[in-house]
Amino acid sequence: MGKHFDWDVHYESTDDNPYLSDFYHDMARWSFNLQVYFLHNRYKQVLKILNGDRVVVQDRTIYEDANIFAPNLHQMGLMSKRDFDNYRALFDLMISQTQAPDLLIYLRASIATLVEHIQSRGRDYEGNMSIEYLKRLNGMYEEWISNYKGKLLVIPVDGLDFKNKPEDMGKIINLVQAELHGLF
Questions:
Q1: How many Å apart are CA 184 and CA 181, to the nearest integer?
Q2: Contact 78, 69 (CB under 8 A)
Q3: Is a pLDDT exceeding 70 seen at residue 46?
Q4: How far, in Å, CA of 106 to CA of 141, rounded?
Q5: Nearest 5°: CA angle at 131, between 128 and 134?
Q6: Whole-number Å distance between alpha carbons of 66 and 45
Q7: Which positions ≥6 away from 59 have C-beta within 8 Å?
Q8: DSSP 8-state code for residue 124
Q9: pLDDT tens digit string along 133-168?
Q10: CB-based contact 43:60 (threshold 8 Å)
Q11: Annotated catalytic residue, options 8, 26, 59, 92
């Protein structure tokens, strides 16, 4: 999508994340550290975007961590109330200095599709992820999206292979194009 629209692309930093592998082996010990690492990196991305003059697409926003991942870890007893409250206060301060994305694109997927995508990435540390954990995250995404107040495009991706099938990527590009610029 970035290539098609000539947008800069900001990816989630996973390769150089010093906490990710540890987190999947001991979630309770590393949840707060991981979430603060992601928050810090996404905040840097947001500031770079706001100070830049190019259109940018991110693969994950700062909002997802604070509204889905951190609360999920807290609800599962994997992040203490003290750490969660501290994290949330830091997020609230950061977000008060930014603005929402011009368009949020939510790729809606079933658990089966999520598992397929995780397996195709082949990241060893994601092999420890449980189906229950994915179900919880998916449910929290759905709840968050249903209450999202900004400009939103929801794209069902079950059955699409936009990575390997140009026609599937074309469908997504057409939906984004229509959302941004109308049908004509």
A1: 8
A2: no
A3: yes
A4: 9
A5: 95
A6: 15
A7: 9, 10, 11, 12
A8: G
A9: 889 999 999 999 999 999 999 999 999 988 889 999
A10: no
A11: 59
The distance from CA 11 to its chain's CA centroid, rounded to whole angstroms, is: 10
Quick: pLDDT tens for 68-99.
Answer: 999 999 999 999 999 999 999 999 999 999 98
- Alpha helices for 19-97 (secondary structure H): 20-25, 27-51, 62-64, 70-75, 81-95
- For residue 122, pLDDT beyond 70: no
Structure tokens at 74: 């807290």
Q: Decide if 124 is catalytic.
A: no
Q: Return the structure tokens found at 6.
A: 């000539």
Q: pTM for the full model?
A: 0.84
Residues 2-181, CATH architecture: 3-Layer(aba) Sandwich (3.40)
Structural domain boundaries in the chain: 2-181
Beta strand pairing call for 8-10 and 104-108: unpaired
How far apart CA 60 and CA 116 sit, in angstroms, is: 19
